[in-house]
Amino acid sequence: MELVVTIDELKDIQIYAEAGATVFLFADEFHGTRVAKKMQLDEIIQGVQLVKELGLKTALMMNRIYTDAEINKIEEMLVFAKDTQIDWIYYNDPAVFMCAEEIDLISHLVYEPDTLMTNSRDMQFILNQGVHHAVLSTEITLDEMKTMTRNVNGNTEAILFGYLNMSYSKRHLIQNYCDEIGIENTYQDAMNMVLIESTREGRMPIIEDAQGTHIFTDYVLDAFNEIVELNKEGLQVVRVDGIFLSRDCIADACRAFRMILSGLPSEIIKQKFEEKYPTIPWSTGYMYQKTNLVK
Fold first, then answer.
1. Environment class of residue 64 by beta-carbon count within 10 Å: exposed (0-12), middle (13-18) or buried (19+)?
2. What's the rounded Cα separation, in Å, for the pair 267 and 225?
3. Residues 226 and 269: beta-carbon distance below 8 Å
4. Is the C or the N end of the chain the one with fewer CB within 10 Å?
5. What is the rounded distance in angstroms from the CA atom of residue 207 to the CA atom of residue 168?
6. pLDDT mean over 186-191
7. 83 DSSP 8-state letter
8. What's this model's pTM, rounded to 2 decimal places?
9. What is the rounded CA–CA span in Å between residue 146 and residue 168?
10. Nearest partner of 187 among 217, 220, 213, judged by Cα
C-alpha cells in the first residue's frame, strides 16, 4: 500500500521515508492550495531529486480552480511535471485533464474533487478515462468507502489522517470581514487562525490566500482502526495530510499506519499515539455517522 505524505521542508523527505512514506506531495504557489507548504519550482526540483534517490515516488498538487486566462499556466506546469518526472499529479478541474491529454500525461493524473467522490459509478467513470487513480470523499462513512473500493476496477485513495477541508470559497471572506469592521487585513496566508462558531466550541483552522478562503474541520482524523478493513476491500493509497501538524506527529502517524499494516493491533497503537499528542482533537470523522446527522 502506498502512503502519501505532504511536505513542509525538504529535510522532511528523509524523516518521512524512514517512517514508511512512499509518495511525497509537493505544491507551488500558483497551482496548489490547502497544502502544508508552497514551494518555488527550483525547490520542488531538488525535492524530486531527493525522493528519486531514495527510490520513492513524487506527486504534485494542482487543485486550483482555473479560469480561461490561466489555461496556459496549466500547460506550463504540466510540461514542468513531465520534464521533472513527477509520478502523480493531483487535480480537480477538468481543464487539467484536457491539457494533460495533449502531452500524454493522463496516466499520471489523480482526480481529487474534495467532497464530490461519493459513489462507485462516479469513481469508475473517472477511472475509465485512464487516470492513475481517484480520491474518495472524506465525508462518507466507512461502509460507503468500503463499498466504493470493492465495486470499482482501478486504484483508489483515501485521506485517513489530518485536518480535513470542510469549506472553500473563492471569496476572500477575512478581507471582507476586515473591510466591514474597518481594520487592516494582515492575515493573508497566515497558518495560525481559527474560526469559532457561536453554537460550537470547536476551533476550525481557516486560511485566506490568493485563491480564496479555506475552512478545515475542528478535529484531526486518525483512521488507524479502519485502514486494514479498507486495505482488504482494495484501497491502494492512503494519505497523511500534515497541514497544521508537527513534523514529529506526521512521522509518528506514518509509522503507526505501517505497524498496523504489518499486523500489529491497531487499538493499542491508536491509544498510544493519541496519548502522545493529548492536546490534538482526534476523531474518526464521518466514518460512523453520515454528514446529515452531524449538527
1. buried
2. 6
3. no
4. C
5. 10
6. 90
7. H
8. 0.94
9. 27
10. 213
